[in-house]
């Protein structure tokens, strides 16, 4: 994002070790990918709106200075995440209800200044958690739309989150980009002592007629197993909806893409209700290195690089 502060994933001197929450059960979900053009904001908005439609109370947090979440929902606000982080404004005074069961904590270009504020803080990776945790407890789910960068804001988002959803466009370059996401999450676990985990890899812009799309999804399924979700089918309606300030469920209900996103929503709910038990918990703890190895292999697989329709 414009004005973001690039950082290495290491705690500031004297930083406190954060208290740990159970990993692998999606409640605080960061939608994250270093690469742009993967449908990240559309996914964050659709997941949050879908959860709200399923009668879950949801807080959607825009951590991207571009402020595309607000545009997508036809919302505007004078107060934003900047005011919460830098000025200490209460969450309740910065959020607005944009749909039934759905509250939005918006962002805009002022968030770039918040990056500079974070850089000077001792516990710089924990500021968002400190500001958000108490209010977040009042919601069934918190969904964070992250910027396509390695920034202090994203570091804060990952330290707050318990799970990460990675949208991946069905092309070779996007597949390569998954490696950096996995390694970043692994570093948050190891260096910042926070057990956030990759909950799912979501293929987006899937066109079943294109050979590269079919091969990319096949490669993701092969290397990520059940963590690879069913793809979101490509549809012009998905791109048109934000221009109308509507979600895909409002603009084109019952279309394949809307149904695909509802399937993701239902899987999130099922995953949380089922929880993490026994061997699943062990698998979640090992997910960082497990997925990093497979991400390298997936990106290097020759079949995934083939192009053509």
List the helices and strands and how they pair.
Layout: E1 28-31, H1 40-53, E2 58-62, H2 68-72, H3 81-87, H4 91-94, E3 96-99, E4 102-105, H5 111-119, H6 127-136, E5 141-145, H7 152-160, E6 163-169, H8 172-191, E7 197-204, H9 211-224, H10 236-240, H11 248-251, H12 256-274, H13 279-285, H14 287-300, H15 302-305
Parallel strand pairs: 1-5, 1-6, 2-4, 2-5, 6-7
Antiparallel strand pairs: 3-4
Helix pairs in contact: 1-12, 3-5, 6-7, 8-14, 9-14
H/E element order = EHEHHHEEHHEHEHEHHHHHHH
Which stretches are poorly predicted, pLDDT < 50 over at least 5 residues? 1-8, 12-19, 276-292, 302-309
The helix fraction, in percent, is 40-55%
Overall strand count = 7
Biggest sheet, spatial arrangement of strands: 3-4-2-5-1-6-7
Largest sheet: 7 strands, mixed
Please state the average pLDDT score.
Answer: 85
What name is given to the CATH topology?
Answer: Rossmann fold
Short description:
It comes from Sorangium cellulosum. The protein has 309 residues and is α/β, with parallel strands linked by helices.
Protein model, in words:
47% of the residues lie in helices and 12% in strands. It has a 7-stranded mixed sheet with strand order 3-4-2-5-1-6-7, with helices on both faces. The radius of gyration is 18 Å and the shape is globular. The chain has 309 residues and is α/β, with parallel strands linked by helices. It has helices at residues 40-53, 68-72, 81-87, 91-94, 111-119, 127-136, 152-160, 172-191, 211-224, 236-240, 248-251, 256-274, 279-285, 287-300, 302-305; strands at residues 28-31, 58-62, 96-99, 102-105, 141-145, 163-169, 197-204. Helix 6 runs parallel beside helix 7 (152-160). It contains 15 helices and 7 strands. It has a single domain (28-305), classed as Rossmann fold (3-Layer(aba) Sandwich).
């Amino acid at each position: 994002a414009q004005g973001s502060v690039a950082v290495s994933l290491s705690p500031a001197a004297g930083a406190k070790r954060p208290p740990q929450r159970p990993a692998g059960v999606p409640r605080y979900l960061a939608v994250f990918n270093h690469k742009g053009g993967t449908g990240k904001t559309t996914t964050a908005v659709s997941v949050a709106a879908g959860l709200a439609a399923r009668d879950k109370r949801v807080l959607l947090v825009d951590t991207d200075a571009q402020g595309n979440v607000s545009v997508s929902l036809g919302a505007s606000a004078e107060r934003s995440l900047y005011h919460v982080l830098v000025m200490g404004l209460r969450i309740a005074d910065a959020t607005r209800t944009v749909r039934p069961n759905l509250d939005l904590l918006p962002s805009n270009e002022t968030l770039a200044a918040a990056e500079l504020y974070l850089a000077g803080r001792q516990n710089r990776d924990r500021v968002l958690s400190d500001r958000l945790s108490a209010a977040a407890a009042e919601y069934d789910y918190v969904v964070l739309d992250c910027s396509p960068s390695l920034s202090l804001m994203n570091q804060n988002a990952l330290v707050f989150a318990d799970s990460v959803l990675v949208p991946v466009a069905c092309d070779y370059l996007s597949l390569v980009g998954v490696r950096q996401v996995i390694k970043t999450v692994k570093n948050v676990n190891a260096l910042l002592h926070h057990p956030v985990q990759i909950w799912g890899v979501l293929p987006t812009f899937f066109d079943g007629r294109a050979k590269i799309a079919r091969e990319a999804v096949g490669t993701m399924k092969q290397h990520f197993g059940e963590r690879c979700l069913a793809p979101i089918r490509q549809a012009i309606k998905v791109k048109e909806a934000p221009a109308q300030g509507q979600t895909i469920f409002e603009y084109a209900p019952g279309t394949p893409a809307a149904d695909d996103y509802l399937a993701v929503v239902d899987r999130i709910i099922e995953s949380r209700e089922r929880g993490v038990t026994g061997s699943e918990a062990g698998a979640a703890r090992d997910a960082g290195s497990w997925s990093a190895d497979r991400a390298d292999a997936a990106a290097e697989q020759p079949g995934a690089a083939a192009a053509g329709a």
